[in-house]
Amino acid sequence: MTLNDENPSLPELLQLYIDSGADEAIGDEPIDRTLLADKVMAFPQAAAAEEGGEAYVPGNRPLPAMPATLAVPKAPPPLDIGAAEAMGDARLLAAGAKTLDELQAALQGFKGLALQRTATQMVFCDGNPAARVMLVGEAPGADEDRMGKPFVGMSGQLLDKMLASIGLNRDENVYISNIINWRPPGNRAPTDSEVALSLPFILRHIELVNPAVVVFLGGVTAKALTGSSNGITRLRGKWLEHVSEGLKSPIPALPMFHPAYLLRSPAEKRHAWADLLKLKAKLKELGIIT
Ligand code: URA
């Protein structure tokens, strides 16, 4: 059905919604979720402050100061209780996990991400949890969704070769996870809100593993965990310090190109090689490899 009339009747409007697939009325008041996504995700500390909680501080650095105009919006967008609750749940569940098993169970119990309904299973980790090197990727793809482990497809095979070139492997001295634990449908990029809702879990994940070094694979991960608006081309190859509330001391962090990008752009492998040598040098300096 289409509407030609500029003043459609209510039954006509209702029929249009039904024809468009909107067959469920959830609340009395309409909610503009696009406004909420901007508010919660771009300035999570504002949403946290409104909830009476502490400022939400993703890894690595305090978020840049919020412009005053945004801290006290003139016409605040309607609060989406569902998304705000999901954010609160994510923080509470992640903070409450005292072991990796508890964190995995907490993630399984988290109901804030629609990805859980389209993915086959959750993808939590692979490798040795006692390893001193932790890699954080972006999100599972089709192979990972099927196998329930991160980086088992083509990009995982390249990653394994890259790691082997500097004496690392996931059976022994590497631990791997992703920012997002469920496959985005069709391998689309995760949305800002999916990343923001997953952030408390990956921050806690890093805290619980407490590696000596963490590697951020790809732009989505590097941006989320550094809070930088710079792309991976600028961020890669420079050592940063990863900090979060539950860490006793900062962890050296190295952003690198994502192996899937290297498969598409083989000319960039020389940069990845340079970064791997930096990683190797740091691991030697820390006495992790000889
Ligand atoms: N890409 C990622 O970022 N993570 C995976 O687990 C697989 C592909």
Strand order of the largest sheet: 1-3-2-4-6-5
Associated small molecules: uracil
For the record, give the distance between the C-alpha atoms at the N and C termini, rounded to a whole number.
70 Å
**Number of individual domains:** 1
> Would you tell me which CATH topology applies?
Uracil-DNA Glycosylase, subunit E
- Helix and strand succession? HHHHHHHEEHHEHEHHEEHH
Strand content bin: 5-15%
Tell me what the CATH architecture is. 3-Layer(aba) Sandwich
CATH H-level name... which superfamily? Answer: Uracil-DNA glycosylase-like domain
Give the C-alpha Rg.
21 Å
The major sheet is characterized as: 6 strands, mixed
Number of helices: 14
Strands, total number: 6
The overall average pLDDT, rounded, is: 83
Binned, the helix content reads: 40-55%
Quickly name the level 1 CATH class.
Alpha Beta
Low-confidence stretches: 37-80
